[in-house]
Design brief:
Blueprint (H helix, E strand, L loop, with lengths): L8 H14 L5 H7 L15 H15 L2 H12 L7 H13 L31 H6 L1 H28 L16 H17 L6 H12 L4 H14 L5 E6 L9 E5 L4 E5 L8 E7 L2 E6 L8 E5 L4 E5 L11 E5 L4 E5 L6 E5 L4 E5 L10 E5 L1
Antiparallel strand pairs: 1-4, 1-12, 2-3, 4-5, 5-8, 6-7, 8-9, 9-12, 10-11
Length: 373
């Protein structure tokens, strides 16, 4: 049975943005106490950036059903700062969703009436925030249409850029390579290099990629450096972010968890939801644990029967899609193999979705740039 959350990802992003913009002088402990949460319950209160702390705090409250604390955060902490302009209506809509009992206090020494007290009593049993939310609907729709037009124009410009800067040829994972004597020697060089650096045999994809590079004159020492650097990023326990290298250049690029439906997508910037902890299994196979989720499914899971990618609650039993084989194909660049028929982790930069691709030739989003956090 799925968990019912009060807030979706858009609401969470909005609250994080407003908390960062509020610039109030207070400690994290003071914020927790003001919304009725014992700071000692918050394991992530230290050693995180402000944006990551706010993300983890709001997700934590959402996951454990702390509606009262979320209401206090919205109505008592943020509304006094943002009681004018568009953010007032946004906070009002979130408070309606939470069914908050608190008044949205403006904290202006009673020089202005509170939002609730300014509503005529003839409204009766109607929620006093609904009319304000309705008044903003047309404006919100207009903003959405303007944004959609901007995205369309941006995508057209991106396609024009890509036509003048064609992507490098995708890698084929066909293992049936004709092994001439020269190829045999280069295969042996790559095999020895992998045994030296990562203590395993290369995959067929890695063989093909690096043999092609050697044929084009790449130096073996450069390849050694790339493999050494990339394998160091993927050590057990490391926290990494993964940037999709899809050919269509958009803001969608960072592999990110989506709390509301246990799925993943591409985000436009990095925060705790784009950070993944590496758990080494064996022979280049890892499991990836999302760091933006506390009490919900958080393991990257490929479902080969329908080519989807989601989050699993653990890596045991039927969750075999949580085991990913790493293919190193450049300096800090990898392809992740879910070891099924349609198996390659693929980001679609056009719309921010993530799926499993049947090959890498036609899907440039199967290449990922790793960065250590």
């Amino acid at each position: 049975m799925s968990t019912q959350f009060f807030l979706d990802e858009t609401d969470i992003d909005t609250l994080i943005n407003l908390l960062l913009r509020s610039q109030q002088s207070r400690t994290r402990e003071a914020l927790c106490l003001s919304i009725g949460i014992d700071p000692k319950r918050i394991s992530f209160i230290r050693d995180s950036s402000d944006s990551d702390f706010f993300l983890l705090l709001i997700r934590y409250l959402n996951e454990i059903g702390e509606k009262e604390a979320l209401c206090k955060l919205c109505c008592q902490e943020l509304f006094p700062v943002f009681h004018h302009g568009k953010y007032a209506s946004i906070l009002t809509e979130i408070s309606i969703k939470l069914n908050c009992n608190q008044k949205l206090s403006q904290n202006t020494n009673n020089t202005q009436p509170s939002l609730i007290s300014s509503i005529p009593t003839s409204i009766g049993n109607i929620n006093p925030f609904i009319q304000l939310a309705q008044n903003k609907l047309v404006m919100g729709s207009a903003i959405f249409l303007i944004g959609l037009a901007g995205v369309t124009l941006f995508n057209q410009n991106s396609k024009s850029f890509n036509n003048s800067h064609p992507p490098e040829q995708s890698v084929s994972q066909n293992p049936n390579v004709s092994l001439t004597a020269h190829n045999q020697d280069m295969h042996q060089q790559i095999s020895s290099l992998y045994q030296e650096v990562v203590r395993r045999e290369p995959t067929s994809l890695e063989y093909k990629y690096y043999v092609d590079l050697l044929k084009r004159g790449e130096k073996l020492n450069s390849i050694r450096d790339w493999i050494t650097n990339t394998s160091s990023l993927l050590q057990d326990g490391n926290i990494i972010s993964m940037e999709c290298q899809g050919k269509e250049l958009t803001n969608f690029k960072w592999l990110s968890s989506r709390l509301n439906n246990n799925s993943v997508s591409l985000a436009s910037n990095t925060d705790a939801s784009t950070k993944w902890k590496v758990h080494f299994i064996a022979n280049g196979v890892v499991a990836l644990e999302n760091q933006g989720i506390i009490n919900a499914p958080k393991w990257l899971d490929g479902l080969t029967h329908n080519r989807s990618v989601s989050l699993a609650p653990n890596t045991e039993g039927n969750y075999t899609g949580t085991k990913w084989r790493i293919n190193i194909i450049g300096d800090g660049e990898v392809v992740l193999d879910n070891q099924g028929e349609s198996k390659w982790l693929n980001g679609v930069t056009h719309n921010g979705s993530v799926n499993l691709a049947p090959n890498t030739e036609e899907h440039t989003g199967t290449k990922w740039k790793i960065s250590k956090q």
